[in-house]
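On clarity, I found the account of how folds are encoded harder to follow than it need be. An entry of this sort, consisting of the sequence and the corresponding backbone structure tokens, reads as follows:
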Amino acid sequence: MTIAADVQRHMQDSSWIRRMFELGIQLKQERGEANVFDLSLGNPVVEPPAQFFDELRRFADHHAPGAHRYMPNNGYPDTRQAVADALSAETGLPYGPQHIVMTVGAAAALNIIIHALCDPGDEAIILAPYFGEYLFYALEHRAQPVVIPCDQNFTPDLEELERKLSPRTRLLILNSPNNPSGAMYSQSTIDAIAELLERKSAEFNTDIFLVSDEPYRKILFDNLQYPFPQQRYQRTITVTSHAKDLGLPGDRIGYLALHPHYEAGPALLDALVFCNRVLGFVNAPAIMQHLVRNLQNVTIDIADYQTKRDYLYNTLTDAGYNVRKPEGAFYMFPQSPVPDELQLVEALQRHGVLVVPGRGFGMPGHFRISYCVHQHDLEGAAPGFQAALQELTQ
């Protein structure tokens, strides 16, 4: 076989999310679309806000010559300025365009960061439950992923984290609100992680970075306020995209932002920009940079997601599932009623409902539901959730 051994192995272990999505396509062909309710993929059905289309029309009608050419690898200066201004307003920190790199979504930003920071054998801390691709991002860039478990409230085990931090630890990825759980880490949890990273960085005489993956930070419910890790820890690198807050997952536009007070910032920014180029991303899409420049303070309708969260939470708890109510994002991560969640996943499939097993997120015994779908899909899935539970517990 000519395929690299590592790639073959990673393909075999690949994302449960994609497996379920592809199964959904097959089941819809077999049973008809009206009889299958695919809640597996975080692919929002919501359309981008009206302001996005206003910007798109304005760009199409009035763009300047050269708008599709290469630009600096870190992005257009005026787009980076707009991002810095918005991030400064949110955090109270003095971000400038020199702290921003526009990227091909948050995924590209994460790959750039890991590549820039990690030598072979260095360690990347990943907090469970986690977005499954984190493991592959680390491994593809020669880093060793180190997974830290959590409790039933999805709070990281800080004692285990302290035990696992080592002189080879280069970064910790923190995703809040979290995919798959929808949980937002509390300010006290952020403070505790920051204190621990500060202490261990001093002990090991290294810089341990906190990579704050924030694509859902604007999708919060119940009037909650987002606790920014970068307000607490200077070695924070912010990562985000507009896939979720503007409903643009297919347009691949995001950015990374280095903390403005990090003392070795210029050298690290140079490395990040270099990696953006040599990993083949080159630069973020030109048109999308032009459009999002004026959309930094625009967000899709969060109330719609909160309504769907409440409907799904009530449906599941009324049926007898044990589930923690999410604070943000558009995922729910209930506990399986049987120890092996694959049994539940298969039972739900028999009733036309597709979800993702928790083992794909480092937490067996749970399963993920994505509710960024049409309301009629949630309503159609409701009888299946009840029937599968009864089938397995009676």
Remarks:
- The chain has two domains: 5-48+301-393, 68-292.
- The chain is about 40% helix and 10% strand.
- The chain has a mean pLDDT of 95.
